[in-house]
Amino acid sequence: xxxxxxxxxxxxxxxxxxxxxxxxxxxxxxxxxxxxxxxxxxxxxxxxxxxxxxxxxxxxxxxxxxxxxxxxxxxxxxxxxxxxxxxxxxxxxxxxxxxxxxxxxxxxxxxxxxxxxxxxxxxxxxxxxxxxxxxxxxxxxxxxxxxxxxxxxxxxxxxxxxxxxxxxxxxxxxxxxxxxxxxxxxxxxxxxxxxxxxxxxxxxxxxxxxxxxxxxxxxxxxxxxxxxxxxxxxxxxxxxxxxxxxxxxxxxxxxxxxxxxxxxxxxxxxxxxxxxxxx
Length: 279
Fold this sequence. Notes:
This protein is an alpha/beta fold. It folds into two domains: 2-75, no CATH class; 83-278, Glycoside hydrolase family 3 C-terminal domain (Rossmann fold, 3-Layer(aba) Sandwich), CATH 3.40.50. It is built from eight helices and ten strands. It has helices spanning 10-19, 34-44, 50-66, 89-102, 152-161, 184-193, 240-250, 267-272, and strands spanning 2-3, 6-7, 104-108, 110-111, 114-115, 124-128, 166-171, 196-202, 255-259, 275-278. The strands form three sheets. Strands 3-10-9-8-6-7 form a six-stranded mixed sheet, sandwiched between helices. Strands 1-2 form a two-stranded antiparallel ribbon. A two-stranded antiparallel ribbon has the order 4-5. The chain is elongated. Mean pLDDT is 87; it is low at 1-8.
């Protein structure tokens, strides 16, 4: 590992981590990695002051004590909680509010004299893209479950039933990865028939696609963002960018919605797409 142009050994990395404020390490692997594997040696070598470790321990145990993790479980207000407590009317409202506030409007320029967003009531929408029907990928790899997650398609169908919009149809267009453009024709046709095509593109945090609504990806490709996995570049993978270009050519009111956790290069979209929402 290179830090400040110098090859650093494990003791140096541990010392820099602890002194930089990283109080805890996930001790995976065999033998145990990083802190568990060498923090005592870093102290003994003089590279890490014991006062720094005491500071980290104080912070870690302060959090543990405040949460009651060291108490008798029968006396803890949290020990009896289970999955059902995560799915209540109150937590659903909180989840929705958090999701809304987390979204960022990156661009919204006028087309024919009027901004594309917000979408006018009664507009004809097309829901397109590899994330058009995703559920789990709207959350994260460490989310507790996706039984309450609704896909963009589900949301559009619900809005259509309520008379807020008219849904002209949905199409995947392409996978997150791969070279197939077989779905382009259907997606382009929908874009032409819609007032506003909305295309959902991005990355995926998990390759376990059971009931996720997203096509699987291969573990070595860059559309997968996961623990222990480095992406080789930050471009939209596969045919996602060509799909965006084709949709914009078919309908300049195309809205791009980004579903991702890691960095994504949107250089072309930034210059050529009317509206971009980071979700």
